[in-house]
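Hi everyone, sorry if this is the wrong subforum. Our group has a chain we'd like a structural model of before ordering constructs, and none of us has done structure prediction before. Sequence below.
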Amino acid sequence: MMHAAARQGLSLPVVRLGVRARGMVDRNLGMLYQAQFRAFLWMLLLWLAAVPVAASESNFVTLILPKGVQIDAPRSWWVLDEEMNTLIQTSAEAVIDIAGLGTSSNGTPLFAANSTPFWTYASVRVELGSEAVTPAEIIALRDADEPDLQDFRDELEQLLRQTLPLQNLTFIAALDIHKEQYSSYPALSFRYLRTGQKGPVVVDAIQIWRQDGIVTVNLAYRESESTLWMPVITRIKRSIVLQ
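Answer:
Right subforum, don't worry. Here is the predicted structure as tokens:
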């Protein structure tokens, strides 16, 4: 049976922390207070996250994906298999066809995983587009200014308002759009809020432009679980490396 978290992963890939003696005592006390504060802060973070931290092994694993893509992912997340990826691709193709957006040109799925425990919702999906990107297009993204980014935002919002209802979802709001860079490649990062089965979902849609195709990294999490997932999603984003 397909879990609800998998169904929430169907959203389309998107078109981007003495005096001398007294002084020594004061410094020693200051160091002690700092150490106590750091210990308190660490315990507080563990309590907020409510996850165990292993002393000898990270809770993240570095993945070397095809097409020269590297990314970290939580070790405990559920990796979607080929059958589930095919289902997501099929759904996306159907949405594009119904919306009259032209012929679907499916990219190559590189990695997809959803959070555990299964009652939570966060996800990562990495895909390489099938269409090449021209050097002129890459330069245009590098040189894009604020009005250009607002045009991108308007286009993406219109696209999502058109396609999300076909997946029984609703676009709520555009939150942010800006340029980024990953391993010297320009990227467009678009953050938006949509409905989900158990409350609003925040989506970070990152498009990294390479000449062999656009590498899309979609990151999502349930808004009500942001205390858990915001640091995890940020860690995943910072780990992205392209060869």
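For your construct planning: Residues 4-16+58-242 form a domain with the Protein Transport Mog1p; Chain A fold (CATH 3.40.1000.10). The chain has a mean pLDDT of 82.
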